[in-house]
Each structure stands twice: as structure tokens, then as C-alpha cells.
Amino acid sequence: MKKLENIDFLIFDLGNVIIDIDYSFSINELKKILPETKHSLTDKFFPSAFHKDYERGLISSSQFRKAVINLYQEDWTDLQVDHVWNSLLKDIPYERIALLKKLKSDFGTAILSNTNEIHIEKFEELLFDQTGEKSIYDLCDRIFLSHEMGLAKPDEAIYDAVLKEINIDPHRVLFFDDLIANLEGAKRVGLQTFHITHPRALIQFFENVY
């Protein structure tokens, strides 16, 4: 633990840090239920304003589903929308879960994720099915979810809110994320950061320092 002697608290993103995600898979699932003439509209799915609003908890799950259906003008059920939306959520390797549980005994730990109600419900299902763990709330000391906070990365406000809650000097906090923009936002408030660039990056980092 020598290289982490100045770190008291660890914060982890969810997507591609704890759970593997595949945006292209969701787009392919979307194309399966869309007429081919509308396939070009799939580019609007993830960058949409309603996606950002849902991530910040500004609209409900019902409003989000209606916005998706309105965008594509298709007569889809809630289950169809949820399937496409959740299909990007893939594997939760148990070695990552075991690492989180181990780290929790030596550090303060938290998850900080840009997410939403539908995804978190599905994450809980996948977590139990794949690892036997009952809930995201058992993985770390604190769970910070964008849709519950009304904030989202990479805005500095979300990191400030987390720091206020954990009450730790930001320079003694290490944040792991797969997106450079989110790491840059964290750096602006003084957090230490580490960029997750491949599926075993988190495991390898701790193999070298812990």
C-alpha cells in the first residue's frame, strides 16, 4: 500500500470500471425494432437532451420512455424501450467486486456514476445474477448516483457535493473513471485521478500498489 499512503478515500465510476458497457450493442438492438428507413436516427439515441435530463433526475422513467417513443414515432411497449436501454449493460467481473470489498477494509470507498433509475434497477439484477451480491449499496461506503443528486459529471458541482458529504481533503481522494472529461472535472476540484483504459486496468493498478 506504499504508493497509496497519501490516499484516504477511493471513488469509482460504474460504467467500464465496475460493469462493462457496450453502447454499440444497444444501437444494434435499437435497429432490430426500427424500420430500416429510421436507422439513421439511432445516432440521436445517446446524445439526446432527454437522456441528459434523465441522467440528472429531471424527468421520470415514464417521461423518459415516452421521449424515446416520441423520438422514433414507434408504438413500443415499456419493456421494449427498457430492453434497448439496458442492453448496453454487460459483465460485472467478480474480481472487481472482490477488489471493492477488500479495499473497503482499508479505505473509505464510494461509487459516483452518471446513471438513471432504469439502469440501476437492471444493474442490481445483473449484480446478483453474476456475483451473488445483493445490492450496489453493499459494495462501497457511499453510493452517489447522478439522477438522485440532480447533478452529473463532469460538472464540478457533483464532485463538490461528494466532497462535502465525505468530508475528506480532495487531494487525499483518488477517483477512477473511463472518460477523460470526467477526470478533468474531478481534477478541477483537486481530486487525484486514474484513467481506466481497458477491462483489467483497475485490477492491474491495485496489483501494482496494494
Structure description:
By secondary structure, the protein is of the alpha/beta class. Helices cover 46% and strands 11% of the residues. The protein folds into two domains: 2-20 and 92-209, Rossmann fold (3-Layer(aba) Sandwich), CATH 3.40.50; 23-86, DNA polymerase, domain 1, CATH 1.10.150. The protein contains ten helices and five strands; from the N terminus they run E-H-H-H-H-H-E-H-E-H-H-E-H-E-H. The protein has a five-stranded parallel beta sheet.
SSE blueprint:
Layout: E1 9-12, H1 23-32, H2 49-55, H3 61-72, H4 78-86, H5 94-103, E2 108-113, H6 117-131, E3 142-145, H7 146-149, H8 156-166, E4 173-177, H9 180-188, E5 192-195, H10 201-209
Parallel strand pairs: 1-2, 1-4, 2-3, 4-5
Helix pairs in contact: 1-4
Short synopsis of the structure:
With 210 residues, this protein is an alpha/beta fold. It is 46% helix and 11% strand. The chain folds into two domains: 137 residues, 3-Layer(aba) Sandwich (Rossmann fold), CATH 3.40.50.1000; 64 residues, DNA polymerase, domain 1.
Count the DSSP helices.
10
Number of domains: 2
Question: What gap, in angstroms, lies between the N and C termini?
Answer: 4 Å
So what's the oligomer here?
single chain
| Secondary structural class | alpha/beta
From the 3D coordinates, which CATH architecture of the largest domain would you assign? 3-Layer(aba) Sandwich
Question: Tags for this entry?
Answer:
alpha/beta; five-stranded parallel beta sheet; 46% helix; DNA polymerase, domain 1; 2 domains; Rossmann fold; 210 residues
